[in-house]
Amino acid sequence: MDCRAGTAAAEWEDLRHHGDADLVPGALDFAVNVRGSQPPAWLRDRIAARVADLGGYPGGDDDEAAVAAVAARHGVGGDRVLLLGGASEGFHLLAGHAARNSLRAAVVHPSFTEPELELRRAGVAVDRVLLPEPFRLDPALVPVSAGLVVVGNPTNPTSVLHPRDTLAALCREGRVTVVDEAFCDVVDDEAGHTLAGRDLPGLVVLRSLTKTWAVAGLRVGYAVGDPEVLADLAAHRPHWPLGTLQLEAIRACVGPEADGHLAAITAQVRAERGEMVTRLRSAGITVAVEPEAPFVLVRTPAGVDPEEFRRGLLRRGVVPRRCDTFPGLDATYLRLAVRPGTMVDELVRAWRAQAEGE
Known about the structure:
Blueprint: H1 3-16, E1 28-29, H2 41-48, H3 61-74, E2 81-84, H4 87-100, E3 105-109, H5 114-121, E4 126-130, E5 148-152, H6 164-168, E6 176-180, E7 203-208, E8 221-225, H7 227-235, H8 244-253, H9 256-282, E9 286-287, E10 295-299, H10 306-315, E11 318-319, E12 321-322, E13 333-337, H11 341-355
Parallel strand pairs: 1-11, 3-4, 3-5, 5-6, 6-7
Antiparallel strand pairs: 2-8, 7-8, 9-10, 10-13, 12-13
Helix pairs in contact: 2-8, 3-8, 4-5, 4-7, 9-11
């Protein structure tokens, strides 16, 4: 057997791994970064009201209205907006763009693995830029030869929020710079960190709406950026890429009705994250870096088998997100979604019991 083939297959599976794969019925979910189990009532009502329209083809006025809503949200023209079936579709389309244009890619890690997976599927050569803890980006680390660069902000799973100017420094003529802002809508001072709306060459900002608004099952998101790049992505899609309910959800989640709800969600994330970090540290749990997103990167106790420790938490009914599937991290890291205090208390109890071998 070719050991190299086995290693490549295992690495491929690691890139495909997502937190929902580890979920156990009835266990406490700290693995998936979706806020709540269902959309808020006002959003459910907006979506449900369009079910009667499913007999007609999507698009037309709905598409224009959703584009206009996103454009208004970020202060750009409609030619700088591309609606997506989740940010994952954006990664797929961008991989195709890189392949068609023979671009070499650089992916900043540790980060969400889907972009690298899509690039490799498309046959694109990928260089990994591995950031050591505390996982802060230096643009000089990115190869000059990279024609496409992917970076998360805030970065999943590290919860690091990079300065806007640091990411802007990656943009240059002849390069596509992809900034994954899937969680940027609920960070402190979103306006001071997002690159969405900035007129920079080759910039493509990807936004997901599935996490904050609990519509992961609907697959909704969008891209904001360089109109030439977005036009190329759009040209390689099938007709009717988004359905009526998806278009309505996008329009609703970036519209004025959502603003007040988003402010409340952001405040809740901030409060729960602060309380959670305090509780974790009080229990002797190592928080790897100061978190700035709706999840926290922690370390397993020193001197224990980290994989056995994670399995022990699973047996005790707590599901963290394993991090050894992220390039640049190993099994001693775990990602914990920000959750309310009662859930954190249960996590701490299970953690202590497992650490003490009870």
